[in-house]
Amino acid sequence: MILTVTPNPSLDRTYEVPALDRGEVIRATGERMDPGGKGVNVSRAVAAAGVRTLAVLPLGGAPGALVARLLDEQGIEVAPVRVTGQTRSNISVAEPDGTLTKINAPGPELTPAERESLLTTVGERSPGADWIACCGSLPRGLAPSWYADLVARCHAAGARIALDTSGPALLAALAERPDVVKPNAEELAGAVGRPLATVGDAVKAAEELRERGARAVLASLGADGQLLVDDSGTYFGSAHVDVVRSNVGAGDSSLAGFLIAGGAGPRALASAVAHGAAAVRLPGSAMPTPSDLSRTPSRSRPKSPWTAP
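Structure tokens predicted for Phosphofructokinase:
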């Protein structure tokens, strides 16, 4: 069972349009509404793969109630933490060439009591979880150290932690030694404070995060593929994608694929690559099913840290 924690969930509306012309009336050619937030997307991808998952998240107002209903319809067990503010609503506009424009709302401000209730709920629901995936931005009211506190508590209970966040929240949590962190290329560059021009640069940056506490680093490098650096070595994986329909949730799908395949080594990396590549072929933030994965040949291999793919 994979438990996910999403401190700042959302209700996501995605519109497909012929072109995004500012100041014009645009008629959408397709639309969908999904429960959103990085941890929520991980749960959706895990459930689509037929694996049990439990989503812990703060929910408030009518958008929060709709998020809970949509998750329930997808067979995902929800452990809601009721908050006074309203769950945020996000909008994505997808163009035919794969360009995606996103408008993300800030979300509600959590009170000290709500913050503690979220931590307590994770602790109460975590027994039996193979992994706890802590994902996404922090809402107002949660300090950057909140993830570090969560990782420390979960480790004390014997759980394995996957962390997908960025900025000060990521850096603060490294000291608590999360079992795997999953930055994208931009987040990895931000964590080490310099641009990354090659896969070799990304490998060096991943090694720095390991030196600062991360036990493994799974990095999404966009169209170039994905990189895994852990105790067993350095691996690179890629998959060919003809047409990108939407990249919303692709990184979350990758993390789900990595965790359900064991969360370590080249086999898990290959699963991450396959899930991410399948996700970008789907509309909005739709998560791939096993039938989608069957059309996604992927590979992973040992990677020299000094060469580009």
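The chain has one domain: 2-302.
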